[in-house]
Specification:
- The complex is a heterodimer.
- By secondary structure, chain A is an all-alpha fold.
- In chain A, 83% of the residues lie in helices and 0% in strands.
- Chain A is built from 13 helices and no strands.
- In chain A, helix 4 (99-120) packs across helix 10 (242-264).
- Chain B is of the alpha/beta class.
- Chain B has helices at residues 43-50, 95-100, 104-107, 114-126, 142-155, 172-187, 199-205, 222-227, 230-235, 240-244, and strands at residues 3-14, 17-28, 32-36, 58-63, 66-67, 77-80, 160-164, 191-195, 208-213, 215-221.
- Chain B has a six-stranded mixed β-sheet with strand order 6-7-8-3-9-10, with helices on both faces. In chain B, strands 2-1-4-5 form a four-stranded antiparallel β-sheet, with helices on one face.
- Chain B is globular and about 50 Å long.
- Classes of the chains: A mainly alpha, B alpha/beta.
- Chain A binds chain B through residues 93, 220-221, 223-224, 226-227, 229-231, 233-234, 236-240, 281, 284-290, and chain B through 51-53, 71-75, 77, 79-81, 83-84, 87-88, 90-94, 96-98, 101, 104-105, 107, 109, 112, 134, 136, 152, 156, 162.
């Protein structure tokens, strides 16, 4: 076993522990609202985690970890730092890098639909309702986009550009109209650029569920996704259900985008899908290794970005993406050096 | 000798453009069929119809006794497309991972077993790329890359290989080695369908030729093809240069 493998193994183990802790916190946060023994277990666990946070605050000299909302945003960040690059790696190598951006824009249209519905129906228009409506609109748009690209015979960027701008256009119209009749003061900026403030318990729970489902689907269908990504026609000859897997991948992308949008914002969310995958591709020797590296880089970006954003009180989305780009630049430099070494020998 | 592919009165159009018209031919088990014709003559379309990637507009295509488009045993067909290596240029995939893909139709959603790995080892050895197994596909020469794709077909235990201009961009020496390897595989009983634009190479290796340009101009053994005027008819009057190569 090489040093390289050991390092990757340790990083993956660290990420798995972080993910488990995140899921534990989110479960406690959910259970404590239930009655009975489960509810009291949740309440105790929740209190224990927060007092652990207090201890961290006292030790490190911060004043953030004692608050539930910090835990919510950090655990959401950790989970999207896993699923974003996981899905993104397949997208990048299918030359569908801009799909994430497009689906984020359709999710924005979904938020606008939610704002409007809040004005017209008894819906409250809380941010978790908006996120849920965005999820549905984005998933439907994902299938629509796939239909469009299938009928224009490639994942060309023309249908992408049309859907990207089109959904944003619809979104701006709906949101301006909805603002007049809707009872809720909607902070568009939070949805555009991401905010820790819109990470609600329900939004966090949504991310937890989608993480478990998406990771499970990728594990179960890894071979099929790999074959189709690498050589779609040969996969078709091997009688894999190519269009079925394509639909699954694109709907998974829509779901991940909506989950990640809460922290990263509509405009920046695609970066978490694409940039760590691009950095990993510079260094990966096999596809499996590339996938592992992209998750490691995604997680590093999220943790560094969140730490910076929380410490200086700036939006997390921008900080996470800048961190990802720094890692990408380092990856390019390192891989150039690696190629240089080979050519010297 | 049983029939692998049976085509009867096949026609196929892209919208209003007729690509193939009234084609009938059969491919016997163990044969090595070369498809030849000018650019845009419908060779690739015919190959796709043969392996069930497309459905005929008219007529029938039977693959291993079933309608080709409904044929389910994908592992029996090894396919190397013209564009097979495009993705490999940028996507970090190792040689072993690529060959392992040949096992995927067998494996489905279960785990890859030791037995699968043994079959992959044998396929890598058979085409002589065992020492390259950890290399990225993008780091290989054109010839090595095509060997990898053949190894993938061997790993899937295919009894039919469909190759669409497999040696475009491969140097002359590697190309000769590649075709010698195909000859060996064919002698071991694998049926091969090959599209190749170089008539000399094609006729040196295949035992049957189908010469087409929308219609089928010749289908038969290589000797009768070289004696016929099929090339001149299929390519039209500008084909004299090619025809002179074959006295």
């Amino acid at each position: 076993m090489s040093v390289r493998n050991v390092l990757q193994g340790i990083s993956l183990l660290g990420i798995a522990i972080l993910a488990a802790l995140s899921l534990l916190f989110i479960s406690a946060d959910w259970l404590r609202h239930l009655g009975g023994p489960l509810g009291s277990f949740g309440t105790d666990l929740f209190a224990a985690i927060l007092s652990g946070g207090e201890w961290v605050d006292d030790t490190v000299g911060t004043r953030v970890f004692q608050h539930a909302f910090t835990w919510r945003s950090v655990s959401t960040g950790i989970l999207i730092g896993i699923v974003g690059p996981l899905v993104g790696t397949f997208l990048v190598h299918r030359q569908m890098a801009l799909i994430g951006e497009t689906l984020a824009h359709t999710a924005f249209a979904g938020v606008a639909v939610g704002v409007l519905l809040a004005g017209l129906t008894p819906l409250s228009g809380s941010s978790d309702e908006l996120v849920f409506i965005a999820l549905i609109v984005s998933a439907v748009a994902a299938l629509g986009l796939q239909w469009l690209t299938a009928h224009t015979d490639s994942y060309g960027d023309v249908p992408i550009a049309i859907v990207l701008t089109g959904s944003f256009a619809v979104g701006t119209l709906l949101i301006s109209w909805g603002r007049d009749i809707s009872p809720i003061p909607i902070e568009i900026e939070d949805f555009l650029f991401g905010s820790l403030a819109i990470v609600t318990p329900e939004g966090t729970r949504l991310v937890a569920v989608l993480t478990v489902v998406v990771v499970g689907l990728v594990v179960v269908n890894y071979k099929q996704f790999l074959f189709i990504t690498f050589d779609e026609q040969a996969a078709q000859v091997a009688r894999l259900n190519v269009s079925g897997y394509n639909s699954l991948l694109i709907v998974m992308t829509a779901v991940v985008v909506v989950g990640a949008m809460q922290i990263l914002g509509v405009i920046l969310v695609a970066g978490l899908l694409v940039i760590p995958a691009a950095a990993a591709s510079q260094l990966g020797k096999s596809f499996r290794e590339t996938l592992v590296l992209s998750v490691i880089f995604g997680q590093l970006s999220v943790l560094l970005g969140l730490a910076f954003a929380v410490s200086v009180d700036l939006p997390p989305g921008g900080a996470i993406i800048v961190a990802a780009i720094i890692i990408y630049l380092i990856a390019i430099t390192v891989s150039d050096r690696a190629i240089g070494q080979i050519s010297v020998h | 000798m049983s029939t692998v592919i049976d085509i009867q009165n096949l026609s196929y159009s892209y919208g209003n453009t007729l690509a193939l018209e009234d084609i009938s031919l059969t491919v016997d088990e163990g044969s090595f069929l070369g498809l030849i014709g000018p650019n845009g003559s419908g060779k690739t379309t015919l190959l796709h119809l043969m392996i069930g990637l497309k459905r005929p507009d008219e007529g029938t295509v039977t693959l291993f006794g079933e309608p080709a488009h409904a044929f389910e045993e994908g592992e029996r067909i090894g396919y190397v497309s013209q564009r097979a290596t495009d993705r490999g240029e940028s996507m970090p995939v190792s040689v072993r991972e690529t060959v392992l893909m040949g096992r995927f139709p067998h494996v489905g959603h279960r785990r890859i077993s030791d037995e699968d790995h043994v079959i992959v080892d044998e396929a890598l050895e058979r085409v002589g790329i065992t020492d390259l197994e950890d290399r990225a596909i993008s780091a290989l020469s054109g010839g090595q890359r095509q060997r990898t794709f053949i190894a993938r077909a061997l790993a899937s235990e295919a009894d039919l290989l469909a190759l669409d201009e497999p040696t475009v961009g491969v140097d002359a020496e590697s190309r000769t080695e590649f075709y010698d390897m195909l000859d060996e595989l064919n002698q071991e009983g694998i049926t091969i369908l090959l599209i190749e634009h170089d008539v000399d190479i094609l006729t040196e290796h295949v035992d049957k030729v189908a010469c087409l340009n929308q219609r089928l101009f010749h289908h038969g053994d290589t000797v009768s093809f070289l004696e016929s005027d099929a090339i001149a008819e299929a390519y039209g009057p500008t084909s004299r240069v090619i025809a002179h190569d074959h006295p």
